[in-house]
């Protein structure tokens, strides 16, 4: 396992977790690198939290392994100063004060009491340090969890859905925090089910669905590949317009709701063509497929909990660019 | 969502391409690296047990029960016995009722020490901070046992001294003093430790407390309803090995022909607790947190 000489690597090899018949995590292999924010993206129930728990040695993998700089988590002699984790919200005793909660964590790793005050200051909970965590709002709870992750000033940080329950100011803060932690050369591994959130923070993207790896790519590549633009056209003279476009060598695709779509930013060209041939247009609008849609397209088959299963006419993956019937229209409904 | 999305901000210029292979500057924490050991886990568990109110409640009620009932019993006996004495009886035995009731508080605290972490989700934080699961269980056991023993010893000592001074009875022998204070405190603390271990196995506070109260009382109650001749031996055994009877052995000087006597209850509880501890440890290692 000494393929890498640099520290702060999380390496997953064929990581699998089964609960009876159900496969929660299916043969995951990827590496999380230092110096960048790696986004861990997937719909609810995709296996993100299970994967993170296996990284932390809380759950035993059914097969495969996960190594942190070549070691299993339980082989780390100084776990909190090596890797800090924000697990699901409120993983603590509500009757204990924030200070005492962090103190017992610090003591278990021989971290000085002073550091508890430092991290409370960092996350902005100093004023309520002596208050019972039971009364904390969700946002305060997230901050306390983040304080716990930062306690050991570790080189690897894992955050499971960190923006959950945070207010806009808190979201802004956690985004900047993650970026600055990565800029210091730390490994930052953050899970989310929101593509838009990841687009703002992550440099690298690992996408899973139903426990399987769907993408392991840089954010830049993902954006380039997926945020393609197209023109949406509605006209009462569809056949005529299709002929005109065909003659001009422009490929148009019919969508389910009777509109046409043309790849690329050709709105001006289409408008001029239509005017020249006297075609009436009701709509001519440049569109851009959002990353969110690209993400949903990617995970379409693996979404476990559909909101309106009957309203979604299958989620079959179409090869990109072919017979694209109203890109993502089914997702808008669900 | 159907609105056109503005181009993605490119501010977070990905420098990830530089990451693999080359000597990337990894973050080095200024916090000194400490090789953690049992001492750290003990300090952590001590902070945990003293920083929740349930500890204060259970131990407060425990002391109240043991001392209150112990003194009340002594006062009653002193007032009602004809010549103000209890004859040849061991005067320390009046602490029995308080300790029997109080042991439920110790059971509750023992269960809560482990099981409540599963209820709150704290266990994940605990096991992340200390991945050595055996060390966590050992630290909890040591801290809880020490607290339970010291508190029980203090409470039973107060009651014993009060009983001896209030009653016109014979002076207990050294052996009786030892069994009636240190011995019974070890036994109660072990009973609490067994509860802690059961809490770790069951992972559910209410369930584990119910089981332990069943263990405490059921054999005696069941024995009371065994009228059949054919079950007489079983009834006898259930009665003699029930926890209340084992507690009373610490006060009796009589060596009955059957059942536990002398220091036997302590060894019985020690063996049972050790076996349960081993099972809890094996399960802890095997199961997911």
Automatic annotation (TrEMBL), chain B:
<feature type="transmembrane region" description="Helical">
    <location>
        <begin position="209"/>
        <end position="228"/>
    </location>
</feature>
<feature type="region of interest" description="Disordered">
    <location>
        <begin position="1"/>
        <end position="20"/>
    </location>
</feature>
<feature type="transmembrane region" description="Helical">
    <location>
        <begin position="182"/>
        <end position="202"/>
    </location>
</feature>
<keyword id="KW-1133">Transmembrane helix</keyword>
<protein>
    <submittedName>
        <fullName>ABC transporter permease subunit</fullName>
    </submittedName>
</protein>
<feature type="transmembrane region" description="Helical">
    <location>
        <begin position="91"/>
        <end position="115"/>
    </location>
</feature>
<keyword id="KW-0812">Transmembrane</keyword>
<dbReference type="GO" id="GO:0005886">
    <property type="term" value="C:plasma membrane"/>
</dbReference>
<keyword id="KW-0472">Membrane</keyword>
<feature type="transmembrane region" description="Helical">
    <location>
        <begin position="266"/>
        <end position="284"/>
    </location>
</feature>
<dbReference type="GO" id="GO:0140359">
    <property type="term" value="F:ABC-type transporter activity"/>
</dbReference>
<feature type="transmembrane region" description="Helical">
    <location>
        <begin position="136"/>
        <end position="162"/>
    </location>
</feature>
<feature type="transmembrane region" description="Helical">
    <location>
        <begin position="56"/>
        <end position="79"/>
    </location>
</feature>
């Amino acid at each position: 396992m000494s393929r890498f000489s640099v520290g702060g690597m999380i390496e997953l090899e064929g990581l699998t977790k089964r609960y009876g018949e159900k496969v929660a995590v299916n043969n995951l292999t990827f590496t999380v690198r230092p110096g960048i924010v790696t986004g861990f993206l997937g719909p609810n129930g995709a296996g993100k939290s299970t994967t993170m728990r296996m990284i932390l040695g809380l759950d035993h993998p059914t097969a495969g392994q996960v190594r942190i700089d070549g070691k299993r988590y339980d082989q780390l002699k100084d776990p909190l100063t090596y890797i800090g984790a924000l697990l699901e919200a409120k993983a603590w005793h509500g009757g204990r004060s924030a200070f005492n909660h962090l103190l017992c964590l610090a003591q278990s790793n021989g971290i000085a009491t002073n550091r508890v005050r430092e991290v409370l200051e960092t996350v902005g909970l100093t004023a309520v340090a002596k208050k019972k965590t039971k009364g904390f709002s969700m946002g305060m709870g997230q901050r306390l969890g983040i304080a716990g992750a930062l306690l050991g000033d570790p080189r690897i940080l894992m955050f499971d859905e960190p923006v959950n329950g945070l207010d806009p100011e808190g979201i802004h803060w956690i985004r900047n925090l993650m970026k600055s932690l990565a800029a210091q050369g730390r490994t930052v591994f953050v899970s989310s089910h929101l593509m838009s959130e990841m687009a703002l923070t992550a440099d690298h993207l690992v996408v899973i669905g139903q426990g399987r790896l769907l993408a392991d790519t840089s954010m830049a590549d993902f954006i380039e590949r997926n945020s393609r633009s197209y023109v949406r056209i509605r006209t009462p003279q569809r056949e005529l317009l299709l002929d005109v476009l065909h003659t001009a060598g422009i490929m148009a695709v019919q969508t389910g709701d009777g509109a046409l779509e043309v790849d690329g930013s050709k709105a001006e060209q289409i408008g001029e063509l239509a005017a020249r041939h006297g075609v009436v247009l009701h709509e001519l609008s440049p569109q851009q497929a959002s990353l969110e849609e690209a993400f949903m397209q990617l995970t379409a088959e693996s979404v476990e909990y559909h909101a309106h299963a009957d309203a979604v006419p299958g989620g079959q993956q179409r090869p990109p660019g072919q017979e694209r019937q109203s890109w993502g229209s089914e997702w808008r409904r669900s | 969502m159907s609105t056109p999305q503005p181009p993605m901000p490119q501010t977070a210029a990905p420098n990830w391409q530089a990451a693999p292979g080359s000597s990337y500057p990894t973050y080095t924490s200024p916090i000194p690296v400490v090789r953690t050991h049992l001492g750290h886990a003990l300090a952590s568990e001590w902070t945990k047990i003293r920083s929740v109110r349930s500890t204060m409640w259970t131990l407060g009620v425990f002391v109240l029960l043991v001392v209150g009932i112990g003194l009340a019993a002594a006062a009653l006996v002193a007032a009602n016995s004809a010549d103000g004495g209890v004859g040849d009886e061991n005067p320390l035995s009046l602490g029995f009722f308080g300790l029997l009731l109080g042991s439920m508080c110790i059971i509750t605290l023992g269960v809560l020490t482990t099981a409540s972490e599963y209820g709150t989700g704290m266990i994940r934080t605990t096991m992340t901070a200390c991945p050595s699961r055996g060390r966590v269980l050992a630290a909890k056991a040591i801290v809880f046992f020490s607290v339970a023993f010291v508190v029980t010893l203090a409470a039973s000592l107060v009651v014993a001294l009060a009983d001896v001074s209030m009653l016109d009875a014979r002076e207990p022998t050294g052996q009786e003093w030892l069994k009636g204070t240190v011995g019974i405190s070890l036994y109660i603390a072990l009973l609490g430790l067994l509860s802690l271990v059961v809490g770790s196995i069951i992972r559910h506070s209410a369930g584990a407390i119910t089981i332990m109260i069943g263990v405490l009382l059921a054999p005696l109650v069941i024995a009371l309803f065994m009228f059949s001749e054919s079950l007489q031996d079983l009834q006898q055994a259930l009665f003699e090995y029930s926890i209340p009877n084992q507690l009373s052995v610490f006060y009796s000087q009589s060596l009955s022909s059957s059942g536990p006597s002398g220091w036997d209850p302590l060894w019985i509880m020690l063996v049972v607790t050790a076996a349960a501890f081993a099972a809890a440890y094996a399960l802890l290692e095997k199961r997911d947190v």
